[in-house]
Structures are given as structure tokens and as C-alpha cells.
Amino acid sequence: MLWFIIWNVFFANVLSGSALYEVNVFLEPKNIPRVLAEAVPGQASFFISYVVTSGWTKLSSELFRLIPLVCSFWKRLFSRKDGNEFEVPSLPYYNDIPTILFFGLLGITYFFLAPLILPFLLVYFCLGYIIFRNQLLNVYAPKYETNGKFWPIVHNSTVFSLILMHIIAFGIFGLKQLPLASTLLIPLPVLTLIFNAYCQNRFLPLFKAYPTECLVKQDRKEQNEAGMTEFYDKLVTAYQDPALMPVQYARKH
Asked: Mind telling me which residue stretches traverse the membrane in this protein (predicted)?
């Protein structure tokens, strides 16, 4: 979902051409910095308007939740469910997290091209913190626990935003014929990729498998719970190998 938004909202509006043209741009890597340096600054006003119209409006709708209210009213009106029954909603991670990360990409990409976008993004993130904090505490109930497994997506999105910003800056310095600035910029994407590789090797395995220390703490915590005795009693008969079960023969009369 995140890469879909980045491609269809960012690159489609920046390149503003046919799909074949957009693909051809990335098939010639040497022209990518120049094309982005020419196209990205021209769309600054559009993305400022996008933050205001899409970002702020979405936060307002998240706070008031008018659409879920209307849907809930019609469901109760035409269904046979009791009016006192209420299903607690869950946060749509698949939609909200990519949107927040995309606005972060806009901030990193445009902070040196169009600094005017930063106050609008600051208002968006401040309002988002207040609103989503209230929603998570008082409105939503999680259907499942991810244990931080969304964090690698956030990390990869941030690294991609930094690399994209470096490429655009490199292209702008090239268009303005500033060889010294372009030369000094070369170590930045290299250091970013090295840091990304370090994080992938150091922290990514923690999101794929739980550490033994955490598992031991969880086992000790569950031992003191009241329902564990009943759970262990049911565990004995929860599964029986069919090969070890006694065979019952029908009696012949």
C-alpha cells in the first residue's frame, strides 16, 4: 500500500506523463537525478495543497467518524441485532500507516526545495498525534498485536526518503553547475546505505523471531495466571495420535 501511494501520488504527479514515459525514466538511471531535479520543485504547490486538503481533512474525519456513524445507524436499522450490541472498531493500519509515511516522505523531500511545506506538515503531525492518541485510548481496540513488526516498514520508508532526497539534491546541484556541492553530497547516500545495512543485520532478526529472553519472561508471566492450570489440563487431551487410540471392534451376534 505504501509503495502504491508513493508511485501513484508522488511520481505520477511529479513526472506528469504517460505510464510508458514514467517507466522509461527509470530505465535510464543516469537521467534520474536530472529529471527529478527538473520536475519535483514544480509540484511543490500541489503537494502543499495535498497536505491541507487530504491530510487535514482525513484527520478531521478520523476525529468525528461520521461515515462509521452513518453505517452503524443503517446496520442497526435494517438488521436484527440488538441496539445495545456494539462492535468495537480496530485501527486500519493498512491505510493510516502508509499515509503517515507518505507525508514524512514529502517533508524529507521538500524541506530544502520548498520549506513552506514544513509548517503544514508540522500541523498535520501535531494534530495526528493528539487525535490518534485519543482514538487508540478511547475508540479503537486492537484485533491483533504486531509486537512492533511495522517498524521495519517505517525504517525502509525513511531510508528510501533520504536516498530520494539525496538524488534530487544531486540533480539540482548538477543543473546549477555546482561541482563542489555535488562532490560533497556523494558520501551521504553511501553512509545512509551503510547505516541501513547495519540496521538490517543488527535489528531485523528481532522482528522475525522472538529472543529467548523475551520468551522466558512470557512463560514465567503466564505461569502465574489463573487460567493456566485449566489450560494444562485440557492440553493433555487436546490431541491424541490416532495410532495410539484403542481400537473398538463391533460385537458379533
From this structure: 100-132, 153-174, 180-199
Mean pLDDT across the stretch 37-66? 89
The more confident residue out of 232 and 163 is 163
220-251 b/e with 16+ CB inside 10 Å = b? Answer: eeeeeeeeeeeeeeeeeeeeeeeeeeeeeeee
Please report whether residue 179 resides in a domain. yes
Q: Which helix (H) or strand (E) holds 30?
A: none
Q: Return the C-alpha cell found at 180.
A: 563542489
Is residue 248 one of the residues assigned to a domain?
Answer: no
Residues 6 or more apart in contact with residue 108 via CB below 8 angstroms: 158, 161, 162, 164, 165
Residue 247 in domain? no
Largest alpha-carbon pair distance within the chain? 104
* Interatomic CA distance for residues 104 and 173, integer angstroms: 23
Is the pLDDT at 192 greater than 70? The verdict is yes
From 68-72, 209-213, 245-249, the region with the lowest mean pLDDT: 245-249
Q: What average pLDDT does the chain have?
A: 83
For residue 189, the enclosing domain spans 2-236
Buried b or exposed e, range 206-215, using 16+ CB within 10 angstroms: eeeeeeeeee
Q: Per-residue pLDDT averaged across 25-30, rounded?
A: 70
Domain total in the chain: 1
The three cell numbers locating residue 209 = 523471531
Cell 442497526 found at: 76
User: In the structure, how many helices (H) and strands (E) does the chain have?
Assistant: 15, 0
